[in-house]
Amino acid sequence: MVRHYTLSSEDLALINRRRGDPNRLGFALMLCYLRFPGRVLQQDEQPPAALCAFVAEQLGLDAAHFSDYAERDQTRREHVLEIETALGLCPRRGKAIGPPGFGSSLKGRHPPKIYGPPPDCK
Questions:
Q1: How many domains does the chain have?
Q2: Residue 8: how many other CB atoms lie within 10 Å
Q3: pLDDT tens digit string along 64-94?
């Protein structure tokens, strides 16, 4: 968890531009998910409690704030677009990859966006 989800000073600067603790924590978790496993947290998806606590601790926040993240779906979408730009990522549809059980919470949903730097991304 430390290797994939430790926030850099640049990450913290980007995260701290958000208004409100729930948006800072949600933005940070979205940033982490886009890096690894390389996908967007789906609407109403709850990240693992240990991950939420690990990221919240780095921000000096209570992990419970995540339950109030992105009450407006537009907020979540805007955060995804901003993070994609900041990380230089290009979304593409495809088969989700990740640890065992990764896709179990996604059954019945649209295929998640998978991120990577394909050469035709402009």
A1: 1
A2: 8
A3: 999 999 888 899 999 999 998 888 877 655 4
Pairing of strands 90-93, 113-116: antiparallel
Of 38, 95, 40, the residue nearest 70 (C-alpha): 40
The pTM assigned to this predicted structure is 0.76
**24 within 8 A of 15, measured Cβ to Cβ:** yes
Contacts 24+ apart (CB under 8 A), 14-20: 14/82, 14/83, 14/86, 15/59
Q: Dihedral of the CA atoms 119, 30, 114, 83 (nearest 10)?
A: -20
In a domain, 122, yes or no: no
Q: What are phi and psi of 93, to 5 degrees?
A: -80, 145
What is the span of the domain harbouring residue 46? 2-116
